[in-house]
C-alpha cells in the first residue's frame, strides 16, 4: 500500500461508517505498579500525578467519580494505524470479497483499482472514490449483518508487517492506562474518526470499552419491520464525521459531559484535546508520538494516516504530554 | 394550557433541542419487596418473571449483564407530561424571560401569542411556530450556558396542578423499577423525544441515569475557541428527532446494542417497543397507560401530549404489558 497519497480527512470521510467501569471515590489506587509497560519518566509521572490529584477527596483538584470522563482516539492511539487505517484494509478486502457479485467493478473506478491493487489510481479517486468504496461495502445490509461481517473480518484478517490479528496490535501501555483510569473511577470512551459500527463488535473484548462508550463516524440507518423482525438498514449516506472539530460535537452528543482527560495522536484529535483541556479545573491532554521505527512505525508531520503537525506544534503551549513510544514505552504490543 | 391543539410530532419537532449501575451477574435480587409501590398483579409479576428469567445463569433465557440494556421513554413514562410537555413549559417561560430584550416579539407570532397567553394563536402557529420558539430559546448560547439555564429553571419552576417542582412529579413505581433493574445488572437509558440537553442536567440526580445514558432530540452544535476557552455553540438547526422511527436509530447510535426491555407510554414509543421486542430471545415491552384522573391524568387516544393509539391497539398481539396506573400502582408520586 506504499505510494498511496490521500489526506487524512479524505480517508475519514471515506471510511465514515463503518467499559465496564467500577467507579471508586477514594484516592488513586496504586496497585503496586499500575503501568508496568511504561518507563519511569515525565510521561508516566504526569499520568500518576493527575490521577492522584483528581481522586483525592477534599483536595483542591478533586473531581467526583461521575465526572471523571476520559476520551481516547483509536487509530494510532490505541492500536496501529500503519501502513493504512485498519478499516480501509477492511473496505478493500470487502470489495474483493464482493466482486464476484459485481462484474461491473472490473471496469469501474475506484473498484477496478482495488481489484488490480493499483494504488496510484486508487489514490487519484480521492475522497469521492473512497466514499464510493465505503458505501458499496458498509451500506445496504442490516446493522446486525454488518456487525457480523466486521466481527468475522477482524477475527481472521492479519496485519501485513506483523502477521498478527489487528486486535493483537493494540498498545499494551495504553491497555494498562485504560485499566488504571477505570480502577480510579474514570469512565473510558473511544472517540474515533473511524466507523462506530466497525469498532463496537470487538471494543469490549479488546479494550474493556462497551459499545455504548464508543463514539465514531456513522452512516444513516432506517428502521424497518421485515418478516416480523425489527431491523435497522444501513443507508449509503453520511450521518456524522467524528473527526477534528467533529470530535467535541460527538463527545457532547454521546457523553454530555466535557472530558477531564483526552488522549490522541494526530491532528484529527486537536479539537478533542482542546475541548478537554481548555476549560477551568484540573485537565490532562496526552499525545502518542510514533517515534519507534524498529518496534512499530515512526511518522508524524507528513503521514497520510495519522498526520501529526498542527497538534505537535501546539502541544507545548497547551501543556499536553508528548509520549515518545520509543523512549516512554518498555514494550509496544502485548506479544513482544 | 387547555385548548391547545397541536399534534405530538409537531411538538417534538419543535422541542428538538433542548446511571450509575452496579452490574451483577447472579440470579435476580429479590431484596424483600423490590417494587413496594406496585400492587400485586399481572404487571408486577411479569416484571419479576422477566428479570428472573434473564438473570439466572445457565437457564435458557439467561442474558449476560453487559447485554441487559433497558430503555425508558421520559415524558409520560418516567414523569408527568400533562397539561403539556415540561420542556414546552420551559420554552414558553424562556420567551417571557427573554422578551425584554426582544421588543419586536410583541408584534411577531408566535412570540406575541406566548406573551399574551393566547393559546389559540399559538396552536395555529403549528410546527413551524414551535420550531421558531425553540430556536429562539434553546439556541444561540454555549452548551454550558444552556445547561445552567435549564438546570436553574427546573430547580424553580412548579407544576400548575400539583404546585410541586417538576422533578417531584416522577413516578415512584418507575423509580423503583429503574433501581430494581440496575440492581440486577441492567444498564438503564432514557430514550426521549425531548431535548437531550434539557434532561441531562438533572437525570442523574432524579433517575440515577448519568448524562451519557440519556438519548434525545438535539440541535446542531459548533466547536469554537473563545478567549482561550473551548466552547460548543448551540446552533438554530435541527440535528436529530428522537421520536417514533427515530428512537431505534437513536438507540443504535448511542447504545449500539438492541435493548432487551423497553418502556413507553405513547405512539412515539411504538418503534422503540418493536425494536426491543421483535427479535429472537427473551424480550420485554411495557406501556404505562394513564388511567388515573384522580391521582394524575387519564388520557390516551386523543391527547395532544402523549397520544396512545396505534401502540394501544398493537400491545396485545406483541405481548406488551399494559400498566394501568390506577390499578397497578399503589402510589403515583413519592410525595403522595
Automatic annotation (TrEMBL), chains A, B:
Give the superkingdom in one word: Bacteria
Secretion signal: which residues? 1-30
Tagged with keyword Metal-binding: yes
SUPFAM superfamilies, per database record: HAD-like
Database matches in InterPro entries? HAD-like_SerB, HAD-like_sf, HAD_sf
UniProt-recorded Gene Ontology molecular function terms: hydrolase activity; metal ion binding
One protein family per Pfam: HAD
Sorted keywords for this record are:
Hydrolase, Magnesium, Metal-binding, Signal
Q: Which PANTHER family match?
A: PHOSPHATASE RV3661-RELATED, PHOSPHOSERINE PHOSPHATASE
Q: What is this protein called?
A: Phosphoserine phosphatase
Amino acid at each position: 500500500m506504499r505510494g498511496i497519497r490521500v489526506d487524512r480527512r479524505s480517508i475519514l470521510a471515506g471510511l465514515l461508517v463503518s467499559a465496564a467501569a467500577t467507579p471508586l471515590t477514594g484516592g488513586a489506587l496504586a496497585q503496586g505498579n499500575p503501568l508496568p509497560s511504561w518507563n519511569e519518566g515525565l510521561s508516566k509521572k504526569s499520568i500518576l500525578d493527575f490521577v492522584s490529584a483528581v481522586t483525592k477527596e477534599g483536595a483542591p483538584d478533586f473531581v467526583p467519580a461521575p465526572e471523571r470522563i476520559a476520551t481516547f482516539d483509536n487509530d494510532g492511539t490505541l492500536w496501529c494505524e500503519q501502513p493504512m487505517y485498519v478499516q480501509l484494509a477492511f473496505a478493500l478486502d470487502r470489495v474483493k470479497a464482493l466482486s464476484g457479485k459485481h462484474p461491473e467493478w472490473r471496469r469501474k473506478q475506484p473498484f477496478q483499482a482495488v481489484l488490480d491493487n493499483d494504488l496510484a489510481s486508487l489514490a487519484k479517486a480521492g475522497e469521492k472514490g473512497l466514499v464510493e468504496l465505503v458505501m458499496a461495502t458498509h451500506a445496504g445490509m442490516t446493522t446486525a449483518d454488518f456487525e457480523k461481517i466486521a466481527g468475522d473480518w477482524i477475527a481472521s484478517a492479519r496485519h501485513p508487517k506483523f502477521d498478527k490479528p489487528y486486535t493483537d496490535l493494540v498498545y499494551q501501555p495504553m491497555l494498562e492506562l485504560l485499566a488504571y483510569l477505570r480502577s480510579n473511577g474514570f469512565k473510558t470512551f473511544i472517540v474515533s474518526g473511524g466507523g462506530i459500527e466497525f469498532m463496537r463488535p470487538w471494543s469490549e473484548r479488546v479494550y474493556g470499552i462497551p459499545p455504548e462508550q464508543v463514539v465514531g463516524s456513522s452512516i444513516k440507518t432506517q428502521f424497518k419491520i421485515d418478516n416480523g423482525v425489527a431491523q435497522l438498514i444501513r443507508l449509503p449516506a453520511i450521518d456524522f464525521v467524528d473527526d477534528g472539530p467533529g470530535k467535541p460535537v460527538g463527545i457532547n452528543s454521546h457523553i454530555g459531559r466535557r472530558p477531564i482527560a483526552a488522549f490522541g495522536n494526530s491532528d484529527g484529535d486537536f479539537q478533542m484535546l482542546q475541548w478537554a483541556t481548555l476549560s477551568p479545573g484540573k485537565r490532562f491532554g496526552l499525545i502518542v508520538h510514533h517515534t519507534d521505527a524498529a518496534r512499530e512505525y515512526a511518522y508524524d508531520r507528513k503521514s497520510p494516516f495519522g498526520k501529526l503537525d498542527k497538534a505537535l506544534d501546539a502541544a507545548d503551549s497547551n501543556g499536553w504530554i508528548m509520549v515518545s513510544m520509543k523512549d516512554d514505552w518498555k514494550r509496544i504490543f502485548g506479544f513482544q
